[in-house]
Design a protein that fits this description.
Elements (H helix, E strand, L loop, with lengths): L8 E5 L11 H15 L3 E5 L15 E3 L5 H11 L3 E3 L4 H13 L2 H4 L3 E2 L4 H8 L1 H11 L6 E4 L2 H7 L7 E5 L9 E3 L2 H14 L5 E5 L5 E9 L5 E9 L12 E3 L6 H18 L4 E9 L6 E7 L4 H10 L3 H9 L26 E7 L20 E7 L2 H11 L29 H10 L4 H8 L3 H16 L7 H13 L4 H8 L3 H10 L5 E4 L13 E5 L13 E5 L10 H16 L3 E6 L14 E4 L4 H11 L3 E3 L5 H12 L4 E2 L3 H8 L1 H11 L6 E4 L2 H11 L3 E5 L9 E3 L2 H15 L4 E5 L5 E10 L3 E9 L12 E3 L6 H17 L3 E11 L2 E8 L6 H8 L3 H9 L4 H4 L10 E7 L20 E7 L2 H11 L9 E6 L4 H13 L3 E4 L1 H9 L5 E2 L10 H6 L5 E5 L3 H6 L1 H9 L4 E2 L2 H16 L7 H5 L1
Parallel strand pairs: 1-2, 1-4, 2-3, 4-5, 18-21, 19-20, 19-22, 20-21, 22-23, 35-36, 35-38, 36-37, 38-39
Antiparallel strand pairs: 6-9, 7-8, 7-9, 10-11, 10-13, 11-12, 12-15, 13-14, 15-16, 17-18, 24-27, 25-26, 25-27, 28-29, 28-31, 29-30, 30-33, 31-32, 33-34
Length: about 1050
């Protein structure tokens, strides 16, 4: 049957900001769905608040709403657009929850909007753990023993029959938020309370512990005629007790017997049938007891999930694209397989390789975390690697992580004595400790007893060690050397690993390999194990005899991607990489993408002309360069990842196009760059560099406290701190040595209470286009990625604006920038200072591109291949008087003990946009999109520093006139009352009880305005910030932010917030 003709327009809800548990895999799935349904002639209406997504580019939908993904905002858009159908299954848990809320409050019925892809009953049965359990019991599918509780009393009854430890899972949450394991009654009560508060319906599932059981996932696709196929089986290397998003996973499953696999397959399909998932992709999770083989079903997601993205990339089967088409009536036997062009989507994918996914963690950003993995997800990204064996793919995945590992081998500096009892606890790098255990003579049985990692995987690890020890010394005989090298390479060893074992350099090994003709062959991911030829080559390397691909013909450029998401380098850089592909294709170039992140749009099979799913190391990239011989390689779009190898590529003769790596290095070299700034007569805060504590103290005394200290060559403000005295500096220098190695520590005068600005610009070597000046709302000292910012700048004189534009032009030309440049400025006492210059793509590029409707990264790629700005005739300002606010989103709910006060070190995982014709409305939308809606009534707590006391009076008066009650600290209360603004006094933390934190916890305060200054007051505010995050109360830390909030609240109260699509705004 062809597509449904009773619907013409479809609303797709996106996933909103990147958070732990919901990352850029939903940009990938949403992008696929938009493209697939538009291709079939449907009018697509898209709602998503994340500006750093390809899916929110206005050419992907017919009406693109960069608006908050909340039931209120989406209801207004439905009222305006009147869609016939709503597809809620490609926007993660956010989209599903929003759709369910719209159904519950009657909006879908009122406007006659049909859910497609999943119906309300199916979502309810799958998401409500109690209903799901009942359905499974009815079918005779085993589930874990346990029950549901909506209170501590109900929870106590459930555990009367279940021994400790027990698993606590809140209903309707994502990424395991609020999930925990309790080992005793005291922990149990505490964790049940947290779980009840994390669940939107205040319900938790309490189950028998499955710790140590094996965990599996099945990715299933079903159509309306009950055709169902398994796309991929996935096995978690870590046993139950570790969230699947934090576990190393392997596809296809390696340790299931055929009988177990068939049982799991049948249960998966039956589960979809009974739950009522009519069409689309679902993920079903299982646990198997290794002692007796008992199999149980854990849960299912009636939507495209994180694992769907992994399964898509692992097999080449575009799950989201097919699911979208099934949702509008097509069946699996009607849809072609786009990769082969010869088979149908009804064919189950076959794979003749092994895929390994390893998660990436950023625990150093959250020092309060113990680093122990559990049932609540904590990873911020992941890598995927493909090899002919598990051993090969495991080694490739470890070297893809960008944490200083060259493969499955710990850093030499991090060797510590092994405590076998400690490897019982899952951690980010437990597998390295497992390797150490084998090297120290422990048996597979001993390691299994401690870790419950299946013996098959442990045997594979032992085999890697056997190969290492067998060939540990470089053989003197040439024939044996070649045999040894080949064996190493077939088992995934990098040139650097071999070099270390043989006491040679990486280039020695590379030469030996090339001389002996030991070169990688490239195989194709084609969904059919090479039974049919692939139309869209998507490749991986291995060391065999047959090469399945030939180099692309014609003009071609290679783009190096950003690798795994991490804090400081996320989806924004993938957005730039994809845009660069679009730009180069327009200029007649074929494009080659190299990346190892399975969550991204850049690694979709049909974005670039050729995709190499490979680690972004010098060795792996050079191997591809040797085969493809591209006309140029672009390194400026993938964040720090490609820049780490840019100079080595250049020295190896690779043609780096765009800004030279030398210019990028020059901007990082303080002394050389300082001289450039002096020559250009551009002010810069006093600064110095130091390699030791004594040098650092000397610089700090000369510059004057407070100082901003940081390592050089890091991204995301890693290791950056504000230091107020000698003692703080000594502590810092002790830690910083680990971050930067041979590079110095940078010490700058900290411009407290300054305004900060971000500028993105394009340069072709002759002309400069300043795309916009963004002003930070937060005070100086907060990392630019963590600060809310406004475009255009909201408080800047014409003279200062001219200076910023002039400095940007001078710096872009002096650094010979070809492409993008980002410059951070600060203004204090009417002097403009340059803080930092990065002649590459920045994380604000997608945001500014959306607001001014100019694809900056796409143009930057075109400039890199010779296009000139003069040909493009770009207009300078944001059109239609748009004001946009970018607001960061933080993962503090995953790290409840973490100090939530912001600092120069970046901690946010994602961002949202709010834009409107008015700053207040834009700010209100951004707050709402970030999950903190501005209140329209209640009490406001105000505590400001002395320099803000006068400025706070009119703002407090405005709040009072809007109907709010004011609570303030003693000094602020006195001043407000004296000036005719009634306020009630409350204790600061440490002054007495009840204090402001008590009031927040008692839900007596709806908004916090708090402008700290100096070391002591920053310390005092930690508790306020932590309580506010937990109770979802907006915290504003600057007077300008508070003024924007006043405007936003006024607009909310008057009902003047309107929602417009990008197509309406820009035409």
């Amino acid at each position: 049957m062809p597509k449904r003709t009773d619907i013409e327009s479809i609303l797709i809800i996106g996933a909103g900001p990147i958070i732990i548990g919901q990352a850029c895999e939903f940009d990938y799935s949403g992008t696929q769905a938009c493209r697939a349904l538009r291709e079939k002639g449907y009018r697509i209406i898209l709602v998503n608040s994340n500006p750093a997504t390809i899916m929110t580019d206005r050419n992907l939908a017919d009406a693109t709403y960069l608006e908050p993904v909340t039931p209120e905002a989406v209801a207004s858009i439905i009222e305006k657009e009147k869609p016939d159908a709503l597809l809620p299954t490609v926007g993660g848990q956010t989209a599903l929850d929003t759709a369910m809320a719209l159904n519950k409050n009657g909006v879908l019925e009122k406007y006659n909007v049909h859910l497609i892809g999943a119906n309300v009953e199916a979502i309810q049965r799958a998401e409500d753990r109690e209903e799901f359990k009942a359905v499974m019991d009815e079918m005779g599918i085993d589930t874990a023993r346990g029950g549901f509780a909506k209170s501590i009393e109900e929870a106590n009854k459930i555990i009367e029959d279940i021994p400790f430890p027990v698993i606590i899972r809140p209903s309707f949450t994502m990424g395991g938020t609020g999930g925990a394991v309790a080992y005793n009654i005291e922990e149990f009560h505490e964790k049940v309370e947290k779980g009840l508060s994390a669940s939107p319906i205040s319900e938790v599932l309490i189950e028998e512990s499955l710790l140590g059981w094996k965990e599996f996932e099945m990715e299933v696709v079903r159509d309306r005629l009950d055709n169902a196929i398994i796309i991929c089986s996935i096995e978690n290397l870590d046993p139950m007790g570790v969230h699947t998003g934090d576990s190393i996973t392997v596809a296809p499953a390696q340790t299931l017997s055929d009988k177990e696999y068939q049982k799991m397959r049948n249960w998966s399909i039956n589960c979809l049938r009974e739950i009522g998932v009519d069409t689309g992709g679902s993920n079903v999770q299982f646990a198997v007891n290794p002692e007796n083989g008992r199999m149980i079903i854990i849960e299912m997601n009636p939507r495209v999930s994180r694992s769907s993205a992994l399964a898509s990339k692992a097999t080449g089967f575009p799950i989201a694209k097919i699911a979208a088409k099934l949702a509008v009536g097509y069946t699996l036997d009607e849809l072609p397989n786009d990769i082969t062009g010869q088979t149908l989507a009804a064919f189950e994918p076959s794979i003749d390789y092994v895929v390994t996914k390893i998660p990436r963690f950023d625990f150093e950003k959250f020092p309060s975390s113990d680093g122990i993995l559990g049932v609540q997800m904590q990873s911020v990204g992941e890598v995927m690697a493909i090899g002919r064996t598990f051993r090969e793919s495991l080694q490739k995945a470890f070297r893809s992580l960008e944490v200083g590992l060259d493969g499955y081998q710990p850093k030499e500096t991090e060797y510590r004595a092994l405590d076998m009892s400690k490897i019982r606890f899952a951690t980010a790098f437990r597998l390295l400790k497992v390797k150490q255990a084998f090297e120290e003579g422990h048996s597979i049985e001993e390691v299994f007893e401690q870790t419950k990692i299946d013996p098959w995987f442990l045997y594979q690890i032992q085999k890697i060690i056997t190969i290492e020890t067998h060939f540990i010394a470089s053989p003197s005989e040439k024939t044996q050397q070649i045999v040894s090298l080949r064996e190493f390479k077939q088992n995934g060893f990098s040139d650097r690993q071999i070099a270390r074992l043989w006491n040679k350099t990486e280039s020695d090994i590379r030469k030996m390999r090339k001389t002996a003709n030991i070169l990688p062959t490239y195989k194709v991911v084609d969904t059919c194990a090479a039974e049919f030829s692939a139309l869209t080559p998507y490749c991986y390397s291995t060391y065999e005899t047959e090469n399945e691909i030939k180099p692309l013909k014609g003009k071609k450029v290679m783009i190096l991607g950003g690798g795994p998401n991490r804090i400081g380098q996320g989806i924004e850089f993938d957005y730039c990489c994809v845009q660069s592909v679009f730009g180069l294709k327009e200029e007649g170039y074929q494009t080659i993408m190299v990346n190892c992140n399975p969550e991204t749009v850049s690694t979709d099979f049909d974005i670039a002309d050729r995709l190499y799913f490979e680690p972004l190391t010098f060795e792996d990239v050079m191997n591809i360069v040797d085969l493809e011989k591209p006309d140029g390689v672009l390194v400026q779009f993938g964040g720090q990842t490609p820049l780490n190898i840019a100079n080595r590529l250049k020295n190896a003769g690779v043609h780096i196009i765009g800004t030279s790596p030398d210019a990028i290095d020059l901007a990082e070299d303080r002394k050389k760059f300082g001289k450039i700034l002096d020559d250009l007569n551009i002010p810069v805060p006093k600064w110095g560099t130091a390699f030791s504590i004594d040098e650092a103290m000397g610089v700090a005394h000369s510059v004057g406290y407070p100082v901003l200290v940081r390592p050089s060559y890091v991204l995301g403000g890693r290791g950056m701190e504000i230091v107020y005295n000698d003692e703080g500096l000594k502590t810092y220098v002790g830690k910083a040595a680990l971050v930067s190695g041979d590079h110095p520590i940078l010490i700058d005068a900290f411009l407290e209470d300054a305004f900060e600005f971000d500028v993105d610009a394009l340069c072709d070597g002759e002309d400069v286009f300043v795309a916009g000046i963004m002003q930070h709302i937060e005070e100086a000292g907060i990392h630019s990625g963590d600060s809310a910012c406004v475009l255009p700048a909201y408080e800047l004189t014409t003279e200062a604006r001219k200076k910023i534009n002039g400095y940007t032009e001078k710096l872009a030309k002096t650094l010979n920038t070809i492409g993008l440049i980002n410059i951070q400025f600060a203004m204090k006492n009417n002097t403009i200072f340059v803080i930092e210059v990065n002649p590459r793509a920045s994380r604000t590029v997608p945001f500014i591109s959306k607001v001014i409707d100019i694809p900056l990264a796409k143009i930057a790629a075109q400039l890199a291949v010779g296009k000139k700005l003069a040909e493009l005739q770009l207009e300078f300002q944001s059109k239609n008087s748009l004001i946009a606010v970018k607001k960061p989103v933080f993962p503090f709910n995953k790290f409840p003990q973490q100090n939530v006060f912001l600092s120069p070190e970046m901690k946010s995982t994602g961002e949202v946009i709010g834009f409107d014709k008015h700053l207040g409305s834009a700010y209100a939308k951004a707050e709402s999109g970030a999950g903190n809606s501005l209140p329209v009534e209640g009490k406001i707590f105000i505590s400001v520093n002395d320099s803000d006391k006068i400025a706070v009076i009119p703002m407090a008066r405005d709040f009072k006139e809007l109907g709010f009650d004011i609570i303030a600290t003693e000094g602020t209360t006195q001043m407000l009352t004296d000036n005719g603004v009634p306020a009630n006094s409350i204790f600061k933390v440490g002054e007495g009880r009840p204090n402001v934190v008590d009031a927040i916890k008692n839900e007596e305060i709806q908004l916090v305005v708090n402008t700290p200054l100096g070391a002591q007051s920053r310390f005092d505010e930690y508790e306020i910030g932590r309580a506010a995050i937990r109770y979802k109360i907006p915290v504003i830390t600057t007077i300008s932010g508070a003024q924007a909030a006043v405007r936003g609240i006024r607009n909310k109260k008057s009902g003047s917030i309107k929602y417009r699509s990008l197509q309406e705004v820009f035409g």
